[in-house]
Structure formats: structure tokens, C-alpha cells
Amino acid sequence: MKKTLLLSVVASTMIMAGGDIAPVEPAVETPAPAVSGWEFSGTGKVYYQTHDFEGDLFNQETSAADLGIQLRATNSDVFAGIGAGAEVSGLSTLNLENWMVSNVMQGTGYGDIDDMTDGGWISQLYLTYGIGNTSFKVGRQELPKALSPFAFSEEWNVFKNTFDAVLVVNTDIQDTTLVGAWVGGANQNAFGAGNNITDFNSINDDDGAYMLTVQNKSIENLTLTGSWYYIPNLGYNLGATSEENDANVLWGDAQYNAGAFNVGIQGGSIMSDDFSDDTTALGAKVGGAVSGINLMAAYSTVNDGDTGMFNIGGTTSALYTETVADQLLNAPFYYGMWTGYTRRDADKFVVGANADVLGGNLSAAYAYSEITPVYHDHELNEFDVCYSANVTDSLNLTAAYVYLDDNTDSWNQNADSNNIVRVIGTYNF
Fold it and tell me: Does some domain include residue 6?
């Protein structure tokens, strides 16, 4: 049955989770000394979407909504150079499920909508410490995709997913950032009912995943990043019986960004003696600016390996070609490794553009995917358009439209295509 696809929150991530015109995320740097004291901030968000998957647009049975609020407190020097940070998050429908919507964007429980309309959780709670050019961050925290491509916090839903992790960052080598991490737990960022973002589970049973990333910027405009993950006993946790069941993940990314012109290549493999077929993936992109319009094109290919491409705790991946189809047609990591429905034995092409107009940013993208899952071959055509504007320094409003067409009747017997509308308001304070 055809799945409903939605557009992500802001123009840069709505069109491509990994394929923006200039997608290199800021490197995690050793925190600079700061004046002691607590800093407080927060975010309020209203998130509504509707589709015509099994009814008309704006009907209760085809709509979802959440009102969310986050409160944050940070202090870089609580005592003897030890810093701390905390963030609490909450979601509510404000009783909209009784007359306006029948689903939520992020669930806070299990079962039907009545079990997940209101709830809160501690989304971040960590300690920090620095010695020279080395920093330590221990506890519940966000992880960036640029340095942790298989365990990162996603921005497409109401609030980001976070991780229980130990993170070590060193910048002793000139123009080089070394990152080591142990990731032991995660909540689950996915659309709608059945995905409880308030519930943090151990990943890979109690073994977790170990990561080492090296990022170098010695050459002007060129960013080279390489990551290695070691996931012990993964095969056992997926039901295998072999003693040789540890998994290794290798991933590399090279991006050259000269401002008006940028290119990138990426690729890697997910390997284990327990897998009958390792997963390999490759991606490439090119972008440039012409008369104030940012243009891009990207391609990715993933073989039919046992795992597919994945993100621990989320639904997207590090591929340049990520769009909203990938966000909503893939389940989270949970306790094992999801096969990545749209990223297993799949080829994908994306072209996109964005420009600053009418006081905001207008973006559009077209994506074509050929997917060969277990039961059916699919050809997906997706068109996304989004307009996002900062009304004030604190308030952002975003409106998005998505059109999806799948040539395979097995996904949706009721329609050949789907239309989706989404409206988001974000207030930072």
C-alpha cells in the first residue's frame, strides 16, 4: 500500500536530508572558555499536516498535529571546569484528536492516538569537561550527521531524536578533528502512532556501538571525513547463532565547496561474518549558484545487502539523496538494524533548487527512485515544494506541498498519487 510522504521542517532539510547546496555541517569543536553561569532558552512548535491518502485534504481522518515545547539550560562551568546541560521536551494535541486530527507526528506512547496525545521526556542531560584540546561529553545528547553518519539527530520531525552516549573530541592535529564515541541508547524518531519518542532503549542489546571519525580540512574548501563503527555481537542480537557476528561499518565522505560551486562523493560498506551479503552504497552530488538560484543534482545506489542503509534511532541516512520518502517509509533502528526499505537494492536521482524570494526561501525538488524490495519493484516519483520565512528574529513559518506517485498498486489501492500539505510554526525564545 502506498505510504504518505511529508516535507521536512525547513527549506534546506526539506528537500534533501543530505543533499543541500552546501550541506557540510559544523564540526564538533572543543568548547572555548566561557563566562560561568546558566543560560536558558526554549522552542515552541506547532506542526500540522494533512493528506488525501484515504480521504480528502484537511479532514480529521487524514490529518495529524502536535504542539511541542522544549526548555533548555546549559552551564559551561558548574564546578571545577565541569559543565552541564539539560533539555526537557513535551508534546500535546490540545484535544485536537476529538475534532480535527486522527494522528500525531511524534508519539508519546503506544497504541491508538488516545494513548499518545500528551507526554514529556528528558531529551538531553549531560556533563562536559575539557582538557587542553580534548573535550568530553557524557550523557543524553544530540549527535551531528557530519561526524556520526550512522547515529545522528534528525531535524525533519517535531523534535530531534537524541542518544545516550560518551563523546570525546580532540583537535590537537592542525585542521583535523578526531571524534570517538560509544553510543549505548536512543529514542525513536518516526512518524505517527506506534513510535514512542519518550522511550529510550539500549541499542544492539547492551553492547551499543563504538565509533571513530576523522575529519580533515587541510586543503582549502575541501572537507574529508572518514568513520568506522564497531558493533559487537550484532548478529546474535538479530537472532544469529554464529560466534563470528561482530559488524564493522566503514564510511567516507569528500566534499569540495568553493561557494558558487560544490561537489561531493561518498560511500562505504556494512560488513559482518553473519551477513550473507554485505551492504555497500555510493553517492555523488554537484551544486552551484546561478543568478541567485542554488541548483543541485545527486545520485545514490545501494546494493541488496542484508541491512540496507540506516540511522540508529531515526529513519533517514547519510546519503545525499535523502528526501521525505526516505523519512517516512523506513522504520527506526529499535533493537536491531532495519533493512532500510527505500535504501536496499535501490537507485535514486534527485534534482533541486532554492532561492531567496519574497522575504523567505522557496525550494523545490524532484526525485526518482527505482527500488527492488523483497516483494515488489517500485518506481517512485516525488515532487516537493516549500516556502519558509522568518517573520521575526524568533518566529519562523513554513508551508510545504508534496506530490508522490508510485507505479506499483500494492502500496495504495485507493489512489494513483497522493497530495500532502504541511504547515509549521516555530518560535525560539
Answer: no
